[in-house]
Amino acid sequence: MCNIVQYLIDHTMSNEAAGKSISRIERFEDLEAWQQARKLVNTVYNLSDVGAFARDFTLRDQRRRAAVSIMSNIAEGFESRTQSLSIERLGRAKASYGEVRSQLYLAYNRQYVSGEVFEQTLAQAESASRLIHGLIRYTNDL
């Protein structure tokens, strides 16, 4: 584990000092960013399991790989030995969020998802991507 862990410990301590009750983050599974990525992976799988989307093997499989990559890279970033490896893995996770969002536009254009589902999933991905951006920015400044 590298300096990202120190960031998370510091963030936890500052929230506790402010009177907020937050448990200490010791595993990547405790990261809100990883938890949000996990939810997005499940959303991606659920959306691509039905209808024409399920039969578009290229888009379905690429979208699933990109979503799984987010979760995996957050975990790898947390467990990395060095700051530079952590930033690289988190950067890959953020890039994969972009890939998932781009593919979501295609799924919407192909009418695989409704406008409502498109908007909800896009908001979910953007929100989670911002969490990664904050971790990268902080880790970069160490």
UniProtKB/TrEMBL annotation:
Listed A to Z, the keywords are: Ribonucleoprotein, Ribosomal protein
Q: What is this protein called?
A: S23 ribosomal protein
Q: Does the keyword Metal-binding apply?
A: no
- A Pfam family hit: 23S_rRNA_IVP
Q: Which is one Gene Ontology cellular component term of this protein?
A: ribosome
